[in-house]
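Running this now, will post back.
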Amino acid sequence: MEDGSVNLPPGFFFSPTDEELVLHFLYCKASLIPCHPNIIPDLHPSQLAPWELNGKALLSGNQYYFFTKVNENRARENGYWKDTGVTEPILSTFDKKVGMKKYLGFHIGEAPQGTETSWVMQEYYICSSGFDTASYRSARRRRKHDQSWSKWVLCKVYEKIRSQQGVNCYSDDDDSGSELSWLDEVYLSLDDDLEEIGMPI
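Update: finished.
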């Protein structure tokens, strides 16, 4: 984990669906069921800026994964995570609601006058009403007074993709084939300038 990589067999890539993140990782964490391999670490968002996650969170493509406490402070000295007001339900393959996904954006400065950055965090929560299995019910009975059942959330952090029209979106897809890098845009603007003054390209 020190270099931000995971020791997976050749050809394997960590790319779980929202349902898999909730049922196979967050559910195991919250119910204290051992998860093997235990590759997602516990972190405190208040101690790290999003660009400092490399080598500390699980990195897969352009996305960082980690667990944190539900009521963990999301602010740090030079910035804070702000709720965007966007919340989505997470449905199972049988159309049962198993969790919720909340979006937060990272702002530099002090709230509420901070400057928005391109960093986004998705927080995954368990929706207990969506589980209807014997294992879940028995686990909940055994931990009726154990607050650890609901204290964990799973976080996914990434940078927003800027489209060619300059519009920001919350997509976390790593589709470099349809997006221009900032360096490509600089080269294209140089080509346009040369055409305007009639110089050969």
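The radius of gyration is 20 Å. More later if anyone needs it.
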